[in-house]
Amino acid sequence: MADPKGFLTTPRRLPPRRPVDERVRDWNEVQAPGALLPIINAQADRCMDCGIPFCHEGCPLGNLIPEWNDLVSRDDWLRASERLHATNNFPEFTGRLCPAPCESACVLAINQPAVTIKNVEVAIADRAWESGYVTPKPPERLSGRTVAVIGSGPAGLAAAQQLTRAGHTVAVYERDDRVGGLLRYGIPEFKMEKRRLDRRLGQMRAEGTKFRPGVNVGTDLDAAELRARYDALVIAVGAHSWRELPVPGRELAGIHQAMEYLPMANRVREGDYARPPITAEGKHVVIIGGGDTGADCLGTVLRQGAASVTQLDIHPRPGDERADGEPWPTYPKIYRMSAAHEEAMELAASPEADVDARVFSATTVRFEGTAPDAQRPHGGVRALRLIGARADGRPGPDAERVLRADLVLLALGFRGPERDSGLFDQLGLDLDERGTVARDASFATGADGVFVAGDAGRGQSLIVWAIAEGRSAAAAVDRYLAGSTTLPAPVGPADRPMTA
C-alpha cells in the first residue's frame, strides 16, 4: 500500500451530490460532475492491503480491490483499469448501481468507516473511458461455434461478452425494442445515464456480438427452433414475475406495479413519449415497498412533480449500527438513505411541500376508490388504509390510518422468471421449489446445451451477482463447446452472500 497510515490519517469522504433543488428538476445523475477525482487518491490510500482482504468475499466477482486501490493512490490509472476489468465486465454499472457489499466486508469496517471502494471503482471506470483505455477486444480467431443468449440484462451481456471474446459467434435476443433489460428500462436515468450503457454496447458490437432486439423468444420465436439453430443457448431472462398485493380494492384504476411505471419514465428519456402514460404529475402518490425499486419510484415521482408522496415499508426502521445477529463481514440491514430519500426529506422540510419520505412498520389493509364510470369501470383509487405492522409483518393493534392516493405504486420485489412466455415449455425446462429454472452445478438445465444465468436461476439478486453468474455460465458454455475453458468462473449456482 502506498501509505501504511492512510487509514489512520485520512477520514472517509464521499463526493458531494448536486443540490436537491437542482437535481429534482432534471434527470441527470445526482453526483456532482468531477467531484470524485480531487478526493479519490486519498480515499484509495485508506485501503490497508489486508493479509486476508475480506472485501473479496463480499464481492462475488472477486474484484482485486486492494490492488487497484494501491494503483489509484499512485495515479496509475491504466493498470488500475486493467485490474478492474480483469474481473468485472461493466464496472461503470456496478460502481453506480451496486449497494457495495464489499464495503460492509472491508476489514477497516470492523471499527471504522469502510474504504469507499464503490467510488474508487467508478472513478477508475470513468477515467478509463475518458482516457481511451477501454477498447474493443475481438477474438484472435473464431471457434466456428454459435451461441444464443436470451435476455440483455447484466447477466446476459456479461455471458455474451465473455463468449464472444472466447471466439464463439454470439447473438443476444431481447424482447424489448432496445437492448439493456432492466439497465435500460428499469434503472432511472438519474441513477445511471443510458449513454454509459450505449457506450458499452458499442464496444460489444465492435468485438463481434450481435444483438436482436424486439424478439420475444417463446412467443415471437419458438425457443426449441432457436436451440436447433445454435450450438448452445444461455437463458438470462431475469426474474420479472412481480409480487402482488392481494387486498380489497386492488382492481381499482391507478394502482400499478413499479415495473409498469418506471419503464415509461425511461421511455420519455429515450424519446418514445412526450409525457408518460402513467405519471405522478400533480397526484398524491403512495409507494408500497421499502427497497431499491421503491426508492427508484420515489426519485422518479419527485421529478415528475407529484402533489405528495409517501413510501411505506412493512419492516421496522433498521438501526444505525450493526445488530448482534449481523456481525462483520456480513452485509447488515441498517438504516440507509438513498439519494431519492435525501431529496424527499429535504423537500419535506420546506413549508409548501407535502412529502412523507418513509413510513416504517406499515401494512396496507385495503384500497378505497371512486365510483365506477365509463373510463374506469372498477372505479379509481382515492385512498388506502394502513395499519402498523408487527415484526413478523402481521397487522398490529394500532388504529387504521388513511392516506390520500391518486396513484399507488407496488414495489414488492419479484418471485422469479415469468412463466407464461412459452420459453420453458418449448425447451422442456423444470422450475425448482423457488420458482426459478432448475440447473446443475455447471449452470446447465435438463435440456442439452441450454444454460441459465442470473436471476432466472438464482432469483432476485444484485447486479454484481448477475455479472458474476454471466461470467461463470460463459465458462460452462465454453467448456461444453470446446471441452475445456480458460474463462474465469467466480461463482457457482449454489453460492450465496455471506450470512451469520
Strand residues, percent: 5-15%
Nearest-angstrom radius of gyration?
A: 23 Å
Total beta-strand segments? 15
Helical content, roughly?
Answer: 25-40%
Cα separation of the termini:
30 Å
Note the total helix count: 19
Helix-strand category: alpha/beta
Q: Residue ranges: pLDDT <50 for 5 or more in a row?
A: none
Apparent shape: globular
Mean pLDDT across every amino acid position? 95
Main sheet specs: 5 strands, parallel
- Trace the largest sheet across and list its strands: 3-2-1-4-15
Explain this structure.
The protein is an alpha/beta fold and 500 residues long. The protein is built from 19 helices and 15 strands. The strands form 4 sheets. It has a 5-stranded parallel sheet with strand order 3-2-1-4-15, sandwiched between helices. Strands 6-13-7-8-9 form a 5-stranded parallel sheet. Helix 10 links the parallel strand 1 and strand 2. Helix 6 (77-85) packs across helix 9 and helix 14 packs across helix 15 (292-304). The longest helix is centred in the C-terminal third of the chain and has 20 residues, at 463-482. The radius of gyration is 23 Å and the shape is globular. Pfam families: Fer4_20, Pyr_redox_2. This is Glutamate synthase subunit beta. Pathway: Amino-acid biosynthesis.
